[in-house]
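Q: Here's a chain of 192 amino acids. Please give me its 3D structure as tokens.
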Amino acid sequence: MTVNLSKGQAISLEKKDGAGLSAVRMGLGWQAAKRRGLFGSRTREIDLDASAVLFADKEPVDVVFFRHLVSDDGSVRHTGDNLVGGAGQGGDDESILVDLQRVPVHVDQIVFTVNSFTGQTFQEVQNAFCRLVDETNGQELARYTLAGGGDYTAQIMAKVHRVGSGWTMTALGEPARGRTFQDLMPEIRRYL
């Protein structure tokens, strides 16, 4: 059963039997908003990019994004860059896989961001979402939907962080400005 998250809401990543999840996928989906024009409605390709920044004691230690697809330790993997988004069918346009059991013990937080690499604002994006899937069985665990576009070019979507011996996901949904995860680092630090 999927939990529809609201901004700031957190969910535990433990299964009903008390065992922790071993592998999760953070999926991102979107489509370009239709625009009215002289020749009817049309859309423009929008290149959103998903990134995962790994932190240890509030310091970045690695990042996974379209130019660095696998973390140095191999525990986090980006499935590849989508330059145009989806057709609005609800599937993931970009995904980042996290093997929670392989994440080094010093990494205590992973922050997921999405940026408009081509510089369009989220006013030009529709049906954008971030979802967390149990990678072992394909079950969607949580979904955060970006409601209403805004005059910003990025979102700090969510973070997965250690709580005791397990992990918790928190929906952040914070608008930001920037074309890459590097541009967002000052904003990301506020949520660590």
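Q: Can you summarize the key feature?
A: The longest helix spans residues 181-188.
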